[in-house]
DNA sequence: GGCTTTCGCTACGAGTCGTAGCGTAACTGG
DNA sequence: CCAGTTACGCTACGACTCGTAGCGAAAGCC
């Protein structure tokens, strides 16, 4: 859930401004946690709404009051994993890229992320609402890292500043697709480990390309 | 199906060497075609075995006699699309890479490939048999293009020959994951068009990296 | 206390899954 | 030509999941 929390009254409820019984925040977190647990145990295809409800100690109808689909529920359940992604300054562009690659790989190694990410993307090819939700809940959070890393590299003088803002956006999108795409493909399609050696080779290839293009 | 055809007797059957009524090859092709049609109309999640059987004019039990899963069926149905992938000699490494990127993008633009590819990969994270089937039916066919393109570039003198065969295999895998991953991510996750401009930018980035690494 | 909304619970029709059983069709070897 | 073997179409079935409707009770606002 992209929950918009306002002022807290009691720990389990939220002041919505509207009248009536407020929705239980505990139920929300319990449901999302139960969803991740079910993903680990059962995987995407065998995960059922009824099972998630039972695990969370909630009625099945409560799930359907908050999420229309299994898809939307899983996106929200997995989205929080992407909050862990950070980009500490490691001193150089190469180190930063390698760090984010390994971090993203560690995320993809988790079984709940593995099975859920590809599945919801597959569904999003036929569901525009889901695609938008994925973009705001997952994709944009990753893309921020690219923008941050580039700004840092520019400040270090490793990458040139780009004058045209449109061209800058395009190149950021390109770099993002290359990094995220390569890691996902290596981890899930080729199904081979994204270890330090691979991360180093990939980073060297990418940064070399960036360097020779920039000059 | 990775059908092993031997000698043909009549157009609709295959001499298997075994006794009994042979399996209808017409049924095979009709089922796979019906599966692709159903993927286009309904998408992965709403595709049902019963529907495919009806479209193909076959009994539902016939499907289960040949494929254990919906997953395996869809892999075989989509695999033939990858036979179209070719790598004509365009004269330079840059042109070859750009060509294969656009070709792969055209394949991913087809609705039956879009919805099916990510879905079966998602399932393969929990099904080893499926993962192996995907590898031989889809992934290896793509990877051949990378090996072919590199050999050509080496013959042209654009890329250095590598002495260590293991290192050569690793670098081929890396390049494959970068190309395929970036295109898939751009097309399905970012959901933006893989047009000529993007293909050119990406190719330039990749080939520049390869060039500066090789020297 | 009255109003409003959410909650848990039960029940339901609709749809899908994968299998079993049957009689028939097709092809092979003697 | 006939017996043996395998595939086929068809029907029916239990088990499961889906998403919804209806109910009384709970929890908060005015």
Structure at a glance:
2 copies of one chain form a homodimer. By secondary structure, chain A is mostly helical.
Break the fold down into its secondary structure elements and pairings.
Two copies of one chain form a homodimer.
Chain A: H1 25-46, H2 49-56, H3 60-66, H4 70-79, H5 93-109, H6 111-124, H7 128-156, H8 165-189, H9 196-214
Chain A binds a DNA duplex (30 and 30 nucleotides) through helix 3.
Give the rounded overall mean pLDDT of chain A: 92
Say what oligomer this is.
homodimer
The CATH architecture of the largest domain in chain A can be named as Orthogonal Bundle
Give start-end ranges of low-pLDDT stretches of chain A. Answer: 1-14
Biggest interface, chains and residue tallies: A-B, 52 and 52 residues
Alpha-carbon distance between the termini of chain A?
Answer: 44 Å
Structural class of chain A: mainly alpha
Radius of gyration of chain A: 20 Å
Number of domains of chain A: 2
Largest sheet of chain A: none
Q: How would the global form of chain A be characterised?
A: elongated
CATH topology of the largest domain in chain A: Tetracycline Repressor, domain 2
Number of strands of chain A: 0
Helix content of chain A: over 70%
């Amino acid at each position: 859930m992209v929950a918009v929390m306002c002022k807290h009254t009691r720990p389990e409820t939220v002041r919505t401004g509207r009248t009536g019984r407020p929705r239980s925040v505990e139920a929300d977190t319990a449901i999302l946690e139960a969803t991740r647990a079910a993903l680990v145990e059962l995987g995407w295809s065998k995960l059922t709404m009824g099972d998630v409800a039972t695990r969370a100690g909630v009625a099945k109808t409560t799930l359907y009051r908050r999420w229309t689909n299994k898809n939307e529920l899983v996106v929200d359940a997995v989205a929080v994993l992407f909050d862990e992604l950070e980009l500490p300054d490691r001193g150089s562009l190469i180190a930063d890229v390698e760090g984010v690659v390994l971090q993203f790989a560690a995320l993809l190694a988790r079984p709940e992320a593995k099975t859920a990410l590809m599945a919801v993307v597959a569904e999003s090819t036929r569901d525009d609402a889901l695609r938008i939700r994925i973009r705001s809940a997952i994709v944009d959070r990753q893309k921020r890292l690219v923008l941050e890393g580039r700004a840092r590299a520019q400040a270090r003088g490793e990458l040139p500043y780009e004058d045209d803002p449109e061209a800058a956006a395009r190149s950021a999108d390109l770099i993002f697709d290359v990094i995220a795409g390569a890691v996902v493909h290596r981890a899930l399609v080729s199904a081979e480990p994204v270890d330090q050696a691979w991360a180093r080779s990939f980073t060297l290839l990418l940064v070399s390309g960036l360097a020779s293009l920039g000059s």
